[in-house]
Design goal:
Chain A is an alpha/beta fold and 420 residues long. Chain A is 33% helix and 18% strand. Chain B is mostly helical and 78 residues long. Chain B is globular. The chains are: A alpha/beta (420), B mainly alpha (78).
């Protein structure tokens, strides 16, 4: 089987409009969570979120004009803006923006989203209701479809290989990277642009998750304290938005062209809970088997894993179940592991989460530092004896890193990266 | 009349993302200004909004240039 490495990364997150702005603020222990500004949320139970900071890009903000054509900006939903920009960043980082005809034929896209163009669907349904069918935009459908991040990236950069997308709720980003790596292993492509994008901070998105009792509602006046994985006072997740996109490349090809290699995709696991649409399995069964499968594929022992970027959403049930699954699988090796939840700083990017957090794993491999779990003041039961990296980033040896992502529908994905 | 022409051109510039000096009365939306079939639907909707007219589908199909749009609006607009 061919080996697959990551040669480019791109991020748009609540901490910044590019990779280095996000990473430096994350390592500095800053929070990207604040009051919702996109709409008047004063009547909502949850009034906070992790919004991407807009600006001219010079201060690490997100400038949509940098990589997304004006006409396209107007036609498509925000998640596609984020995805197009992050994909552009990743291709620039990999030095692959100017592909030959032949390379283009061997390069594909596999970018997903959990929900896709929810803001635009909600707005256009009001237009339909108030003004009738002839006022619905001709760009409505293709500007909202989840696979249109892949579609737009493919068109923009001339990528004529597989043009694919994943939709597995909050596991999307991790599944996209794992599946895309397999397309390269199976020789369907030599290069894949893969990841996830999300932008559902809109009235319907916040209302829907709040009604599912999934969102934090107790920290509206202190937003930076709201996302607190494994802390005893946690009360739900905080919605984030953005995108994480990687360039995956067949290893020998990457080495031949002297590309900078962030790490190898060595393990991938994917399972189903078969239990409940929103609640995780009470014993963390699916999570456990997902991690075990990824380790087996990687040919690694639990003690080989230095860093786990946890799913850790800051919900009362999920955090402890994941912790329990990690303890069972890792046994004594939990003592040498560092595990953090970066959702404490950026919130939950839903379909973007697994990809953004995979990039954090890759940057941990690069810089030999693990990002912190903010707000972990009073760890929950079961946290003793395991380094959850409270409050401050920690410099340490990181040779292999594991990302977990779990989603509604009982879908679980794990990706493992190792230094090359 | 010239007011209508200016407003039509402004809409075309905004919706197609083209430079204002590229838009003349003879410009064809598709052949000269890079519009696709979806853009032309959106343009017709924008003309309807701007001028308070209804442009039926069979009439919309005949609006291919800036001049066609100006003529329709001049004849039917409020």
């Amino acid at each position: 089987m061919r080996r697959v490495v990551v040669t480019g990364v791109g991020l748009v997150t609540p901490l910044g409009g590019n990779t280095e702005a996000t990473w430096s603020r994350l390592i500095a222990g800053e929070s990207g969570i604040g009051p919702i500004t996109r709409f008047d949320a004063s009547d909502y139970a949850c009034r906070i979120a992790g919004e991407v900071p807009y600006g001219d890009g010079s201060d690490g903000s997100f400038n949509p004009d940098a990589r997304v054509d004006h006409k396209i900006q107007r036609q498509v939903d925000r998640f596609i803006h984020f995805g197009l920009d992050a994909a552009g960043q990743a291709l620039e980082d990999a030095g692959l923006t100017d592909l030959s005809e032949e390379e283009g034929l061997r390069t594909g896209t596999l970018i997903g989203s959990g929900i896709g163009g929810l803001p635009g669907i909600a707005e256009e349904s009001i237009t339909l209701h108030e003004r009738g069918p002839r006022r619905v935009s001709p760009h409505f459908v293709h500007g909202r479809l989840i696979n249109l991040v892949s579609g737009q990236v493919s068109i923009r950069y001339g990528l004529r290989g597989p043009n694919h997308a994943v939709v597995t709720a909050c596991s999307t980003g991790a599944h996209a990277i794992g599946d895309a790596a397999r397309l390269i292993m199976w020789e369907d492509a030599d290069i894949m642009v893969a990841g996830g994008a999300e932008a559902s901070i809109c009235p319907l998105g916040i209302a829907g998750f709040a009604q599912a009792r999934a969102l934090s509602t107790g920290f509206n006046d202190t937003p930076a304290r709201a996302s607190r994985p494994w802390d005893r006072d946690r009360d739900g997740f905080v919605m984030g938005e953005g995108a994480g996109i990687v360039v995956l490349e067949e290893m020998e090809r990457a080495k031949r062209r002297g590309a900078t290699i962030y790490g190898e995709v060595v393990g991938y696991g994917l399972t189903g809970d078969a239990f409940h649409v929103t609640a995780p399995h009470p014993e963390g069964d699916g999570a456990y088997r997902s991690m075990a499968m990824a380790l087996r594929r990687a040919g690694l022992n639990p003690s080989d894993i230095d860093y786990v970027n946890a799913h850790g959403t800051s919900t009362p049930m999920g955090d402890e179940l994941e912790l329990g699954a990690v303890r069972r699988l890792f046994g004594n090796a939990v003592g040498t592991l560092s595990m953090s939840s970066t959702k404490s700083a950026i919130g939950h990017l839903l379909g973007g989460a697994g990809a953004v957090e995979s990039i954090f794993c890759l940057l941990a491999l690069r810089d030999q530092v693990v990002p912190p779990t903010l707000n972990l003041d009073n760890p929950c039961e079961g946290a003793e004896g395991i380094d959850l990296v409270p409050h401050r980033a920690r410099e340490r040896r990181v040779e292999a890193a594991l990302n977990n992502s779990f989603g509604f529908g009982g879908t679980n994905a794990t990706v493992i990266f190792r230094k090359v | 009349m010239s007011d209508i022409a200016e407003r039509v051109k402004k809409i075309v510039v905004e919706h197609l993302g083209v430079e204002p000096d590229k838009v003349t009365e003879d410009s064809s939306f598709i052949d000269d200004l890079g519009a696709d079939s979806l853009d032309t639907v959106e343009l017709v909707m924008a003309f309807e909004d701007e001028f308070g007219v209804e442009i039926p589908d069979d009439a919309a199909e005949k609006i291919l240039t800036v001049k066609d749009a100006i003529a329709f609006v001049a004849a039917h607009g409020k």
